[in-house]
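Deviations from the work plan: none for this task. Representative record:
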Amino acid sequence: MPEDWIAILESPLPTSRALDFVTDPRAGGINIFLGTTREETSTGGKQLLALDYEAYPEMALSQMKALAQRAREHWPILKLALLHRIGRVDLAEPSVVIAVSTPHRKESFEACRFLIDELKKDIAIWKKEVWSDGSGTWVHPHSS
Amino acid sequence: MRVHVKLFAILRDRAGTGELSLHLHDGETVGGAVSALAQQHTSMADFLPRVAYAVNREYVNASTILHDGDELALIPPVSGGLDA
């Protein structure tokens, strides 16, 4: 039976619990990926303080569940955790945690890479850059 | 009929609210609803051509017919969800 932990959380992501969740005696490999807030300096010299994430949670959750199902169709995933934080995420803190266990390491690398690449494409979650002068910039690429 | 509109990210900031109620003629399409929004909320108008649409949490296109009580979400281009 598939065992997935898929959630959108307003609190700091429980990274070690995600690792515990996917730990399994049938697994020969576990991959865990954290997407973290990176420091930036704007062209005008402002410093990035944090990222603010906003979700359409009902839609984003169903998209994340569908994404997990697609990964399960490609790789023999034992357990999977897919967590996204919303609200303010300070520098160096994770906004995304993905953990995957599979029987062999190659599969866990591939599945984890697939999950993060696809998560970035069209999940209904947006981010706003919060700058040192108090301004905020929504990040909306030109290709949707 | 009445449609519930959900706004996110830049559209929510521009409109000053995350939810709107829109009165429309029966049989109106998503595209018609978005045109009505652009006229009523001019602060959003220039960004609306860039949004995708979801009705009752499923992506649809502009020609989709709306029904009373539908939830119409305007989905700005997503930023990738993380910076990595």
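Strands of chain B lie at 2-6, 19-23, 52-55, 58-60, 71-75.
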